[in-house]
Amino acid sequence: MGEACFAAPPFSLSPVLFLMLIENFELHSSQIRAKEVILLSSLKRTPLFPLYADFKSARCIDFGGWELPVQFSGIQQEHAAVREQAGLFDVSHMGEFIVTGSNAETFLQQMTTNDVSQLQPGQAQYTMMCYPDGGVVDDLLVYKLGEQQYMLVVNASNIDKDWQWLEENAEGDVSLRNQSDSTALLALQGPKALDILSKVTDAPIAALPAFHFINQASVYGHTALVSRTGYTGEDGFEIYCSSSHAASIWRGLLAAGEAYGLMPAGLGARDTLRFEAKLPLYGQELSADISPLEAGLGYFVKLDKGPFIGREELQRQKAEGVLRKLIGLELLERGIPRPHYTVHNAEGEQIGEVTTGTQSPTLKRNLGLALVQSAYAAIGTELWLEVRGKRLKAVVVKSPFYKQPKVIPAQS
């Protein structure tokens, strides 16, 4: 175990909250080294874990059963690097399933909310799998590798559940292969990502549109799938490669990006970046109890494509209107919205709950996402948060809180 990684608590905390706990109590590695083995020995590790020790300030946590870095140098610095230059994330804990067979497209149409039939080889789409009651099994990406050949990229904490759900519902000529353990995933994100990746690949990535990918690209001498996707609200690329090549590509990208201000980034910055862009996190903005329509993701639910699991309930929700909506809010008094803080109306009635919240590193405002009764979702609506026994005033604000600035071509 690299001594740079701190032990995680034996209970669930978001990456940002855990880092606050560590900093508040000023723990030192000498105080907790004996507990590291007990708390972290059973956790899974990515192929890049040995490289975390190269960074003296790296801190690891238990994230869905994985020992992953919450930071390499500091959440604020890493967040700023992605917004202004570039950041490199190890997200090799994500799951990858290969779906093939003459009925592969029909099967995925039945299993997911988006329209898989619209994909051409080399394209990807964001989608969700739902239960019959409209709750979400997981949100995922679907890559069309070829005719009747797809790759699904699922959340790490849901790998086993998703695999079982797919197997239980597979019919006809459909073959499933779980290649999560043999696949590594690196995410290069930020306005300088294109410049940096261009230093280590000859693939035509500059012309690659969003949600398109190049299979069998050469990256730092290794074969990889390069996708123009990400989870930060910035331009960027995700690089799928063999686990045995991950360390070489990681080091190659860091070397190529040094002149551009590239920094390795951990889960803490990944969380604050996706939060500012209002990208959902499963277990917070999406769950078995929160439907895609309640989460504001109706664009990715194609009710007119034909039958799929959950369609009838989602049709009903759309026709009648959802009872709850995901909103953005700003706390107007001193305090920071945190997950599970209750939200109240002027009469003191609880009308919802915060799903994610923090002080935005980019905007320096105390912001949150909350699932509330639809009657209180209009921008400008005054709300109150229950914070440590006190009611603090908040207001519904426009979200996403951050959008990638448009680049205006220079005039010649």
UniProtKB/TrEMBL annotation:
Pfam families listed in its UniProt record: GCV_T, GCV_T_C
Provenance organism: Paenibacillus algorifonticola
Known function: The glycine cleavage system catalyzes the degradation of glycine.
Catalytic activity: N(6)-[(R)-S(8)-aminomethyldihydrolipoyl]-L-lysyl-[protein] + (6S)-5,6,7,8-tetrahydrofolate = N(6)-[(R)-dihydrolipoyl]-L-lysyl-[protein] + (6R)-5,10-methylene-5,6,7,8-tetrahydrofolate + NH4(+)
Aminomethyltransferase C-terminal domain segment(s): 324-403
Superkingdom of origin: Bacteria
Similarity comment text for this entry: Belongs to the GcvT family.
InterPro entries documented for this protein: GcvT, GcvT/YgfZ/DmdA, GcvT/YgfZ_C, GcvT_bac, GcvT_C, GCVT_N, TrmE/GcvT-like
Protein name: Aminomethyltransferase
Subunit: The glycine cleavage system is composed of four proteins: P, T, L and H.
CC annotations in GO: cytosol; glycine cleavage complex
